[in-house]
Description:
Elements: E1 2-6, H1 12-19, E2 25-29, H2 35-40, E3 43-46, H3 57-66, E4 71-75, H4 77-85, E5 90-106, E6 118-129, E7 139-144, E8 150-155, E9 160-163, H5 175-184
Parallel strand pairs: 1-2, 1-3, 3-4, 4-9
Antiparallel strand pairs: 5-6, 5-7, 7-8, 8-9
Amino acid sequence: MIYIIDHQDSFTWNVVHQFSKFDDVFCTNYFDINQKKLDQSKVIILSSGPGSPKDYPLTSKIYKKYKSKKKIIGICLGYQQILFNEKGKIVQQKNIYHGYQSKVRVTNESKLFKKNKIFKVGRYHSLKLYEPYKSNNIKITMRCVKSNIPMAIEDQKNSVYGFQFHPESFLTENGQTIIKKILSS
Length: 185
């Protein structure tokens, strides 16, 4: 079962729809966590949402508790939440990308996707990871072709993955394939 934590975002139900193609999905609001279902899940999705990672301390606690025990996937705010908990600094970016399609390139650090492969992805965010960023386990695996900002991460050791973009968005080409690869890794 996949447990989705909804950070009060309208995109969450698109995430539910896409991920339900691969497994049973249980989704609850950030303020109404079902501990029994969370414990039973194999995968935890940290959804997109408004605000910044510091606005969701319960998600930070969940991330720290289940990291390396369950597969964790962060989308947009969820991606930022992972990096925030891994000592990354999340900052306002110069340009806001809401409903914007851009190209991302897979870096040499990716174990899941073909190196230098380019994807068109849907972006809906105003925050980004401040660089330089150093981590022993988290690897930046996709970058925006135009701005070079990090757009995806992989932590193979702890089964943690994240996307600054929305793989469930109609603006993301091959989004279902991206989701399938992460779930089957």
